[in-house]
Amino acid sequence: MTAIQTRRRPASPASAANRIWDAGPLTKVVLAFALVLSAFPIYYMFIMATRTNDEALDTPPPLLPGGNLGDNVTRLLNTEDAHFATGLINSIIISTTVTLSVVLISTLAGFAFAKLKFRGSKILLGSILLTMMVPLQQMGIVPLYEMMVNLGWTGQIQAVILPFLVNGFGVFMMTQYTTQAVPDELVEAARVDGASTMRIYASVVLPAVRPGMAVLALLTFMQNWNEFMWPSIVLNPDNPVVQTSIAALNQAHGTDYVMLFTGTAASVLPLFVVFILFGRQIVGGLMEGAVKA
Fold first, then answer.
1. In a 10 Å sphere around its CB, with 0-12 CB exposed, 13-18 middle and 19+ buried, how is residue 288 labelled?
2. 13: CB partners within 8 A, 6+ apart
3. For the CA atoms of 231, 70, 74, 230, what is the dihedral angle to 10 degrees?
4. Would you list the DSSP string of 84-114?
5. What is the pLDDT of residues 220-251, one digit of tens each?
6. Are 94 and 239 in contact (CB under 8 A)?
7. Which of 61, 95, 151, 176, by CA, is between 20 and 30 Å from 30?
8. Cβ–Cβ < 8 Å for 221, 213
């Protein structure tokens, strides 16, 4: 009787290449450990915001939520030393305004530098890169403060908004992203069809650079939300931002650990909301930039 031998079909090169990038058990364990190690401080902060000071000092510390979150938030908002509610509202206004301005100006400038030909474009782009190499905020803080005094803006939030409406990093980032994401042929085809420069920007460039805009928006929002030095100089204690509110809270209630945890948790909550709303586009923009690079 003749034996029939069956041969296995050789694996395709594509499937073999995919298996190279499959995560092994050790990789998954390391990633899970890194995730727990990174997320635990944030989790513990929110847990402490739901506890009392006596429970926060227990040994071992509590790891499950308590029932005092409402009382802690009420005490935080009613604390006159920090003006936390005012600081939270001011930070939202400042960060949102600056983010919208930076994203809009950066995409316009990036489109101009990447796809439009005009005299002196390389010199202007080089000048923008030079601003990224010099800490202008630290070196220009004295003349900038004098400017705000002359304008009569000290103690007002526009003094924190104006210096950050344009960002050299944002212009450079969107220039590089537009160069890669928008083909020259697409712009030329729109020109042939009779589209104006602003129509090309609105109908061709913006849809293509949307992931990069989301990344820039998140970075800008986080940077301005966490800004401390300039607001602490130009704003008054009764009209703070959220970071200076936390500093004032620490000075006035340094031993009230639960209130400090509650204020810190409230200060990072808007960042979680922004990331949840734009997380998909942000990750897509990062991955797209990595693949193109």
1. middle
2. none
3. 0
4. HHHHHHHHHHHHHHHHHHHHHHHHHHHHHHH
5. 999 999 999 999 999 998 899 999 999 988 88
6. no
7. 61
8. no
Which residue matches tokens 């499959």? 22
> Alpha helices, DSSP H only, in 24-167?
25-48, 53-56, 69-77, 84-115, 121-133, 136-139, 141-151, 158-161
Instruction: State the pTM of this model.
Output: 0.82
Distances (CA, A) of 10 to 13, 15, 21, 22, 169: 9, 10, 19, 19, 50
If you compute the radius of gyration of the chain from its CA atoms, what whole number of angstroms results? 26
Cβ-contact 240, 156 below 8 angstroms: no
Name the residue type at position 270. Answer: P
Q: Is 117:198 a contact under the CB 8 Å cutoff? A: no
Find all residues with CB under 8 Å of 197, minimum gap 6, and list them. Answer: 116
Torsion of CA 261, 265, 268, 269, to 10 degrees: -170
Dihedral angle at the C-alpha atoms of 211, 95, 271, 31, nearest 10 degrees? 50
What are the tens digits of pLDDT across the range 42-88? 898 999 889 888 888 888 888 888 888 888 899 888 888 888 999 99
Cα–Cα–Cα angle for 269, 273, 276, nearest 5°? 135
